[in-house]
Design brief:
The protein has 572 residues and is mainly alpha-helical. It has 23 helices and eight strands. This is SulP family inorganic anion transporter.
Length: 572
Amino acid sequence: MIANLPILRGLAGFNRDWLRSDIPAGLSIAAVGLPSAIAYPAIAGLPPETGIYASIVGPIAYAIFGPSRLLVIGPDAATMTVLAAAMAAIIAAEPAAAGIDRVAIASTLALGVGFFCIAAKLLKLGVLASFLSRPILVGFFAGVSLSILVGQIGRFTGVKIESEGLIPPLLEILRKSASIHWPSLLFGLLMFALLWAVRAFPVKVPGPVLVVVLSVVLSAIFDFHGRGIAVVGDIPSGLPMLSFPALHQMPLDKIVLGSAAIFLVSFGAGIVAARSFGSRTGEEVDANQELIGLGAANIAPGLFGSFPISVSDSRTAINLSTGGVSQASGLVSAATLVAALVFLHSALRILPIPALAAILATAAISLIDVHELKKIWRISRMEFVFALIAMWGAISFGVLNGVIVAVAATLVYLVRKTMFPRDGLLGRIEGRHGFFDLARFPEARPVEGAAVFAIQGNILFYNADYLRMRLTTIAKGLAAGTRCFVLDASAITHIDSTGATALAAVAEILAKRDIIFAIADLSEESRDILERAGVIKAIGAHNLFNGREEALTALTSKNSQASDAGSASTEL
C-alpha cells in the first residue's frame, strides 16, 4: 500500500536550479492567493485566518502526497459555497450543533472529504471525476456564481441580510435601502471596477493584490473603521495549531452527507481543472492518484482548524505563467503566507470588508463560463438543457440541493443516452469489405436469405422492453424467404435478466416463423447470463458464432444444403 503512495512525486528529480523558477512562482502564487484566502472564508461565515491556514497546510500536504508537479491546491469559490450550504444544513437540522464552533464543523467536513478521497482511491473510483459531465459542471457553477454574488449584498452595503435564495435578498435590500451605508457601497464598487480595469488593461500586478494593498493603505490613511466601513478585524498572528474536532458532538449523519456533496463537487471540478491544465503541459492526470493528493490536502486543513479545499484554477494558472516546474513553488507559497501571517497581521486587520466583497464578486462572475455555454449550445441542445437544469437547481433549491439536482440530471442524461441505443439492419456494398447500415447507406443490399441486426449498447432492465419491441417489429417485417436472423452482439457488453427475457421472447417469435436465431460475437459475461436464463438452450448453442461472417457462412450454406436436399427428394 505504501509503495503505491505518490510520496514526493511532485518533487521527483528535484535540483537546486529549479529554485530559480519555483521561488518567483511561489511568491506570485502567495501574492494572488492571499486575497482569496482572506475573502473566501466569508462565504461560509468563517474567520479569514482559516483561509490562510488552508493555503499553508494544504499545499504542503499535496507536495508530499500529490502526483502532479504543477497543480496548486487552495480555497476555491465553488467548494466554499457547497461548504456553506452543508454547514447551514447541519446547523439547521441539529439545534445542538448551533452551539458548536463553525470552524470545528468546517474542519470536520474537511476530514470527511479527505476520508472520502482515500476511500474512493482504495475502491479505484477515480471515474467519479467524470460523473458530473462538463455541461453539468458549467451550469452548476453558473448557478453557484449567482448565489455568491447575492451573498455579497450585505458586505457591499453594510446591511445585515437575513433572507436566503436568489430573489428574497434582493427584495430585502430594497426594503432596507434606507440603512445602506453608502461609503461602503461606493468603495466596494470602486474596487470592483478596479478589478475589471486590471483585467481589461495590461497591468503586471494581479488585480486582487492591487485591491488589497490599495484598500489597506486607504483604510489606514482615512480610518475606514472609524467612518463605519467594516474591516476584517483581528487575525491571529501565530501559526496554525494541530487540533482534533470534537467528533462526538457532531451530527455524524449530516457530516457524512455534507462531506459527500463537497467531495463530489470539489473532486469533479478539481479533476476537470487538472485535465485542462494537463492538456496544456502534456502532464498526464491520473484521477485515482490525484485522490491521494487531494485526500491529504483536505485532511491537513481538517487537523489545523480550516476547511475543505480543491485544485485552484487561479493559483495553478499563475504557477504555469511564472514558470513553476515543481511542487517547490507550492512550498514557497506556503512559507510566504506564514511570513505574512506573522508579520502582516496588523495590516490585514484593517482590510475593508467591501474590498473582499469585490474580490468575491469578481471571482463569482469568472465562474460563469459564457464561452463554454455557447459551445455546448452549438454542439448539443440536449446537453445545454442539462446545463440549465444544473444552474436552475443551484439557484432555486440552494447549493447543497443543487448538487443533488446536478447528480440527478447527470443520471437522467446517462439513462437517456443508453435507453435508446443505436441499432440497424446491416447489409453489404458490392466491392467493399464489411457490413453497412441499410438505413444510412442506400447502396447497401441485404444478405440474401438472411438478416443481420446490430445493437450498439447494452440490453438492460430500463431499455429491454424498447429493444424487445424493436426486434419484434424487425422480425415480423422480415421478407419472405429469410432463413436466419443474426444478432450482432459485438457492441453489447452486458445483458441482465430482463434483457435475457426480452431476447427469449424474440427467439420465440422467430421460431414460429421458422427463422433461425443466431448471435455473433457474444461476450462471455453475456453468454453466462443467457445460459442461466435458458436462452442459449432455446436457440441452440450451435447458433452462437464468433463473428458475422462465420455465422452467415455456416447458416446460409446449411440452409442451401437443406434446400438442395429438399429439391432432390421432390424430383424423386
